[in-house]
Design brief:
Shape of chain A: globular
Low-confidence stretches of chain A: none
Number of helices of chain A: 10
CATH architecture of the largest domain in chain A: 4-Layer Sandwich
Structural class of chain A: alpha/beta
Order of helices and strands of chain A: EEEHEHEHEEEEEHHEEHEEHEHHEHEE
CATH superfamily of the largest domain in chain A: Ribonuclease Z/Hydroxyacylglutathione hydrolase-like
Number of domains of chain A: 2
Distance between the termini of chain A: 7 Å
Oligomer: homodimer
Helix content of chain A: 25-40%
Largest interface: A-B, 37 and 37 residues
Chain lengths: 304, 304
């Protein structure tokens, strides 16, 4: 299964001349998933050659403008470009209301159906399950309701050791039993333990998108040993007080979360416009968690 | 008086990788006026070094997203950047409702006051008068209510011919009478005609912003002999039928309006994303009206 994450925007509420508000595209096999959609996302998609109409799912973390203001324009463009496929949007329910109102005031009729799925913010919740992966929303601690999103590859049972298993001439039910971890019971009454006939399944690939949150150790059990963590790092640590009052994090705190959750790799983003040079923030994160990287706009992280 | 027009966006509803939806900044003396505010306008302002907080007035022509979707983000950025001055926005009343609703859902409190002025679409109407200029809204023929905007320099009366008038030792009232075109009546009963003591006033500079409209000759008397006309030219003329059904114009039609209104200069904009090369549209307009130009993003037209 392939996992690619392309960063479209890495700025917090105020953009700079070179940086754009939050948006990224996660490609899992052939599914293109847009996560947050700040103002200008449709232009960033054009710039980095992400086709608007390939997007299958959209996830919007919360109702701050830098995370959703690009959505109405993107939907109109999809329609103008001839989209007819349904589009599933997972977002706060207020966003559905706002977009429908705006389209009604602008006399816009989309040529495709948008299916809105209302996020809940009281507890983690699996909100999407496909053949290849699941998505879970995770409440974050921000000024308003905000959700992180956890993407987990589905792994189907143990892998059959063909060399050992095939000579037994198993039927489908017996193969299924092996994949589920059961031992083989032959017609002669002999049992062959599962471990002899199967291999461990491939580890499920896991990606966590955590934006707009206070430093919050309660996240740790939910993202433990994830392969990839995107975590907001709005400020450098000398502004930790400002981070706290605005319900944001510092780069050092992002590194700390990554380190304590023992993730494979950390990408920091959602940078305040005051930072011209992002190296300062990266160095801070790396001090605590060396496998850190910057959410550089246009960059694609190929994870598998 | 100085007039400068800077183009920030020239695309119609669908942007391209290099073009952005409608927005332009008109600078009259020290007043910065934003006309329309498509998605990404705040980024375009950063790119072309137009300070967000210098904007004194905003005019929004209509409720199609490519003309206003950049406004909520821009207002938030102005607030974050410390604006405290009132901001006057002239727009359809639905936009005030929509923005207030969004800010309430996003828990945004601006640190400055926005004064909304509701546009009317039944007849031309003077909507702003400053010491230096007036602004008139002009109903256009589009799918939904849409207004053009006419900017007219105010010229204060006739110019005094100092060489002739000063030796007469006039008082303030007598000078004012001359400026208003009256003759001079001396204490000796003699009359000196106004023409001997004054010069003609400077011609008022006039700019018309006409976007999103059918080809409409009813506009002509309202923009006659204007110095500068921005007119939409969404399509080339081989698509005149499509222009008609979508309530837009072709470049040739824009040239025709400019020619018949005998304006000084035409700038065409609001181009469909299908045109990679805008020269085709410019040539078409120039065939009918040679003093035509392209609304190139980042270009400043210094008119006086």
């Amino acid at each position: 299964m392939s996992f690619e994450l392309t960063i479209l925007g890495n700025s917090s509420s105020t953009p700079t001349s070179r940086r754009h508000p939050s948006a990224q595209v996660l490609k899992i096999n052939n599914d293109f998933i847009l996560i947050d959609c700040g103002e200008g996302t449709q232009n960033q998609m054009l710039r980095y050659k992400v086709s608007h109409n390939k997007i299958r799912y959209i996830f919007i973390s919360h109702m701050h403008g830098d995370h959703f203001l690009g959505l109405p324009g993107l939907l109109c463009t999809m329609s103008v470009q001839g989209r007819i496929d349904d589009l599933d949007i997972y977002c706060p329910e207020e966003l559905e209301f706002l977009i429908n109102l705006q389209f009604s005031l602008s006399d816009v009729q989309l040529k495709f159906k948008v299916v809105y799925h209302k996020l809940q913010f009281d507890a983690p919740k699996e909100i999407l399950a496909t053949r290849d992966y699941t998505v879970t929303s995770l409440p974050l601690k921000h000024r308003i309701n905000c959700a992180g999103f956890l993407f987990s590859e589905r792994v189907y049972g143990r892998k059959i050791n063909k060399q050992e298993a095939d000579p037994l001439n198993l039927n489908q039910a017996e193969y299924e039993n092996l994949r589920n971890g059961g031992d083989y019971k032959g017609k002669d009454g002999k049992t062959i333990p599962n471990a002899k006939l199967t291999f461990d399944p491939r580890k499920s690939f896991k990606y966590a998108y955590i934006t707009d949150t206070l430093y919050d150790e309660e996240l740790l059990p939910h993202i433990e040993r994830f392969d990839l963590l995107y975590h907001e790092a709005t400020f450098a640590h000398d502004m930790v007080d400002r981070a706290k009052t605005t319900f944001h994090c510092t780069a050092l705190q992002a590194g700390k979360i990554a380190s304590r959750a023992k993730v494979g790799k950390l990408i920091i983003g959602h940078f305040s416009a005051r930072y011209q040079n992002l190296e300062e923030l990266l160095e801070e994160a790396k001090d605590v968690f060396p496998r850190s990287d910057i959410a550089e706009e246009g960059k694609t992280f190929k994870m598998r």
